[in-house]
Amino acid sequence: MIYTPMKKFTNLLLVISACLLYACRESESVAPRQPLPNTPPVPVVPAAPAVAAFQNTTIEVKENDGNQQTIIIALSKPAPSDGTLVIKLSSTTTAYGVDFETSPAAINGEINLIVAKGDVSVRFGIKPIQNTIVNNERKAEFAMARATGGVTTAANAALVLEIKDDDLGLRLKKYETVSGAWRASREFQYNDKGEVNSITWTTYTPFATSGSYTYYRENGKVVRMIDQVGFVTNYIWKDGRVIKSERIEGEQLKQRIEYAYDDAGNVGEMVYYDRQPDGTLQRSMVMLFLYYLDGNIYKKLTYYVEEGKEPELASTQTFEDYLAQPNPLPMVETLPHLNAQPNLPRTYQLEIGGQTLHYEIQYQLRADGLPTQRTLRGGANTETTTYVYN
């Protein structure tokens, strides 16, 4: 077949028309595309921090315990991220670096603890510091001050540390004596040398009466005692011994006691002089003391004295059969710095008013020999004393 130029042109037009017709049909069958909306990004919410709380709220350590105590702070869940926890120290009865130390060390009264992601607890150490000074109650508070990162603090999150002193040794904290409806107690406070600083007393006969004695020292010697109403007893020393005491009420000298000593240095005699209506002092009572060679009281004799008459024996107390164990509470008192019964008597006899009363004394002892209870039994009478130590 022979194509002329006119036929070639006609065929080309037919092809172009067919292509255009197909394209139009395709465009009619496809939906037009819409523009994409402007969607904001989804925010990433951080995990809630773990809540920190002390595993215990109190801890008690002995001063002579050289071991470090580990304090555990529990987290409510694994820490979702790294963080820090700050523990603040506060106390009015302890000093950091003197009474105790911590690990990590406190800086400006604060302990900084690092919390790593995934931790379920955080810890620090407390170690008491041994000294030779007698300390009374010592407490310190460790409070969660603030936290950052993956940890937060609970409300009122705090730990109280109490340090028990080992230098008090045989010293008594409190005792109570009960006999029928009658009851009496004393509680003792000590200075940093272990000497009695004050005594608080209460008696029930059966109605309650209470008071206190506060002692003052100069150069290690007790020189003054003031009671709860402000009356003062002055102790006058000579050659290392108290030779007399004077009780002052207001501006008046109400009583004087003169002391004499045996060859072993024990108080052998106490002579009482009481103020009379005319302002003079008159001898009113004499106490004589006899001792065993080991310094324990054997007998105490009490005489009443009337002007112009011979002293009259009022009572005799006898103590026998002493145990070797130490006695923190003598049944006979002479001076506040002396113990007239360093050991425990097992028998007691009281002669008074023409009668002789015999008592057997029994003790309950701790492993170190100190008594926790003393019981006197005689006839129908029973008296029980309980002891509490520091």
Which labels suit this protein?
390 residues, mainly beta, Immunoglobulin-like, Porin, 16-stranded antiparallel beta barrel, five-stranded mixed sheet, 26 strands, 6% helix, elongated
Shape: elongated
Tell me the CATH architecture of the largest domain.
Beta Barrel
Residues in helices, as a percent range: under 10%
Q: Kindly name the structural category.
A: mainly beta
Account of the 3D structure:
With 390 residues, the chain is mostly beta strands. It has two domains: 50-164, CalX-beta domain (Immunoglobulin-like, Sandwich); 172-389, Porin. The protein contains one helix and 26 strands. It has one helix at residues 5-29; strands at 50-54, 58-62, 69-75, 83-90, 100-103, 110-115, 121-128, 138-149, 151-153, 158-164, 172-179, 182-190, 196-204, 208-218, 221-227, 232-238, 241-249, 252-261, 267-275, 281-291, 297-304, 312-326, 343-352, 355-365, 371-378, 381-389. A 16-stranded antiparallel β-barrel has the order 11-12-13-14-15-16-17-18-19-20-21-22-23-24-25-26. The protein has a five-stranded mixed β-sheet with strand order 5-7-3-1-9, with no helix packed on it. The longest helix is centred in the N-terminal third of the chain and has 25 residues, at 5-29. The chain is elongated.
